[in-house]
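Q: What would this complex look like in 3D?
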Amino acid sequence: MALLVVGSVAYDSVETPYDRVEDALGGSATFFSAAASFFTPVHLVAVVGSDFQTAQVDFLRERGVDFSGLTIEEGKTFRWKGRYLENMVDRETIETQLNVFQDFNPILPASFCDDATVFLANIGPELQYHVVRQMHRPQFIAMDTMNYWIQGAPQELRRTLATVDALLINDSEVRELSGETSLLKGVKKIQTMGPKTLVVKKGENGAMLFHESDLFVCPAFPVDRVFDPTGAGDTFAGGFMGTISMKNDFSVATLRQAMVFATALASFAVEGFGVDRLRTLQKAAINQRVQRLYEMTHFELESLS
Amino acid sequence: MALLVVGSVAYDSVETPYDRVEDALGGSATFFSAAASFFTPVHLVAVVGSDFQTAQVDFLRERGVDFSGLTIEEGKTFRWKGRYLENMVDRETIETQLNVFQDFNPILPASFCDDATVFLANIGPELQYHVVRQMHRPQFIAMDTMNYWIQGAPQELRRTLATVDALLINDSEVRELSGETSLLKGVKKIQTMGPKTLVVKKGENGAMLFHESDLFVCPAFPVDRVFDPTGAGDTFAGGFMGTISMKNDFSVATLRQAMVFATALASFAVEGFGVDRLRTLQKAAINQRVQRLYEMTHFELESLS
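A: Here is my prediction, written as structure tokens for the whole assembly.
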């Protein structure tokens, strides 16, 4: 069963205190597909401009990403330019050129409408809703969002939230969306808005999976050097949804495994600019990090008598 | 075998956005003992003023804390007054009255000098060193420190660091002490200064154990409401060292278990003002949270084929 992703394909220009890159292949749907394609066939829906170099995504085609939902419009591809601060977490946007993305209207190819698992990457909530309405019988829909939509389109966001099974979100966004200072209270409140599953991403502090009343916590995989954090969240989402789609199972046990694969994938994403590291990545390296995450969290349970 | 702790016994006045308390029993040695006494006999060395109400520590005596190293000096007990901000993490000190603590000179009762495990709570590094020199054959020495000493007494701190097995420290202090932005690089650098074991505390983001090249990560236990974070770090240290002293074992397996008990204990500490919650705590409740931490981190290891 294929996994549908609707999001952006973009060119990112990134500066870090150590290095810089111009027009690196990026975008939420790109990072997502680069990760998910290790697990499952991916159906991608996005828009690019006539300047887009399609050969750049050949490596994704070879890994089973179907680009028949990629529209090429007259004009320029979405571009983002940003700078990371010394801590490699905080960043400032230097420039956002929406270009052809401004009029993005995701129309799914007919064959994509039967996909069982769906990821709505970080696009406007009204577009996300429009995608959901085109699906025939989706079994598991997950979505991303950000502060921009939480503030700017709260009603549209609530309407989309009510239709999804899972929300992937940063810890600060949990507080913003729920209005609660306590993360736990915030999560419970958001669960009443629709998604029974919440994945709370905390960067170098790992991620938490709330599934109904179950809680699973996965540490980040520690990397020696963060090269470029751009796309880590979308790569995480790709590993998460990829695992679920591969197993075609939505149990807590699978969701937990999906968290761990997601964590491993995200750790590779930050080790290169854009999708560079994900391009050459091998399954053996992914398995090795999953094994190490297991070892990092294992202890012998004993009681105090 | 008993566990020695040298630190402070104090009265804390704490304000939070929700509540306040005046002159609550606190101090690093108090929180530490309140936690460690669930696991092992504790030998406490500290100083208080003539205003100290000794009956307040009767509950610790009953749990096997030996106060023969508590000196009572003419004058007032150490007092700290602070205010927590809305996020219940950041705080500002309103007033610090060192009082009799200013001239604290820890002289160990003769019988304490044979203790196998030692915790040097957050006091001046020259006092910590003075304690180490009085020990006969300690098997495992751990210490705490803070930015005040990292900045103000770097040489004394390095001398003490060279004598200990373990350092318990916050993540921001790792960066300060090592001068490295990367946590991993910072930890490796500090390991060359003496302690082969580093426990990096990250508050609500859990704690990491670095033991030589081994890494263990433990999430924080999520509590519904943080009442007062004061003393959480010392309580964590008490749970950690208590476990090690109880087992009289210094293997990685024991250190990992110690991290989990420490995490459970710290989660109780924040649920009341001062040591209130630790006063009434029962072993069954500790075991329950350890069990839940096990469940929170467990997943079935599987490879991507």
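A: To summarize the key features: Chain B touches chain A through 47 residues (CB under 8 Å). Residues 252-269 of chain B form the longest helix (18 residues).
Q: Very helpful, thank you.
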